[in-house]
Amino acid sequence: MINEKRRRVIKSLTAGSALAGIAGQSILSKALAAETPHAIYTDGYSAGTEVKRLLLNDLIEIEGMASKIIPAGGFGYISGGAGDEWTLHENRTAFGRKQIIPRVLTGKGPVDLKSQIFGIPLTSPIIVPPIGSHGLAHISAEAGTAMGAAAAGTIMGVSTVSTLNLEQVAAASNSPKWFQLYMMQDIGFSRELLQRAKAAGYKAIVLTVDTTATGNREADARNHFKFPLQFGNLTSGGAGGSIQQLNSAFAITIDPKVIEFAIKETGLPVIVKGIEHPDDARIAIDAGAAAIQVSNHGGRQLDGSPATFTVLPSIAKAVNRRVPIIFDSGIRRGQDVFKAIASGADVVGLGRPVIYGLSLGGWMGVQSVFELINKELAMVMQLAGAETIEDIKHIALA
Ligand code: FNR
Hints:
With 398 residues, the protein is an alpha/beta fold. The protein has one domain (4-392): TIM Barrel. Helices cover 41% and strands 11% of the residues. The strands form 2 sheets. An 8-stranded parallel β-barrel has the order 3-4-5-6-7-8-9-10, surrounded by 7 helices. Strands 1-2 form a two-stranded antiparallel sheet. α6 runs parallel beside α15 (352-384). It is globular. Mean pLDDT is 90; it is low at 1-27 and 33-38. The structure holds ligand FNR. Ligand FNR is lined by residues 78, 91, 129-132, 159, 161, 180, 208, 273, 295, 297-298, 300, 328-331, 349-352. Residues 78, 91, 129-132, 159, 161, 180, 208, 273, 295, 297-298, 300, 328-331, 349-352 line the site of ligand FNR.
């Protein structure tokens, strides 16, 4: 039985949206209507329910806006970093140490943001990285993000610890998705997740290698945060569905054999996510990685590790264009995207702002976030003298 409040929410989420061509609407209502334990909040938790376009000035202030919608415990979990949050802040500060030297007499323009990775066309070089538990932010959870990503013409990474299960997210839109694997101690269950992802049509595997333990996120302790949701993928598997069961389920050692395992089990491109050292990039490529994701998990894992922007040039040198480089952690502005690409990235991941957009406006909020950062990137390219994404790689930073 769906209660009346839930029925109203589902109706408001699915009514009147201009989603022609996107399969999400009926899937979303089915996903939300399903009487699955993970779709129901405990402890009186209530996330965003509105679906609307957002009027945004920038992707910094959106954090404060989202803090008024997402309950304190969930907001602390999403916004926080590990330990002193030095790395979290350094991810932003590092961009300020490099400047773009514009070229103004090259006759370039108009700007074209189009990009691609593994032959998948993208509206711009900005994608959604895997983020757990979108249900903390909005009742549509990952189905909303999938619809927003589809509307924005981009790829969505879907976490092992998503709120909806990977099949529900796959069905929520027709746009391409990558499944992110946290390698589990239970190899059989890891294999099952990979096989389910392949069967559900995921186009690549993102293998996250920086989480052999969960970072020390002190905001969660301060807020006495108890996860109000289960994880859709884990309820039937050996890992169980709660955060407590999950923390002891992750593999505690990771080596190149894990990369080979993910390739062998799926035959899909495997992106190795969480690289900060050039030697790890080399090892990953030697093991068959199809791409490297330079990431420090948005400052949520090893506090005191460098900003990803600081280490990107040395990793780009080691990779030497053998495979694409995806970059994330700290991207908030079009000029950050530009600087990352000028430093060797091919595509970037935009993390928390997507979740904030989801909380404030559901799938339309996600779309609004992409529209804003794409607009900023186009403006930076125009003023810096880069007509295409490839041109950005030839603009000097100082
Ligand atoms: C993450 N990230 C993440 N990464 C991953 O591989 N699997 C996961 O389940 C999660 N979960 C997750 C939850 C939350 C709340 C956040 C904020 C982040 C990391 C994510 O993929 C990405 O690396 C960062 O979000 C990028 O940093 P910014 O853009 O948030 O600064």
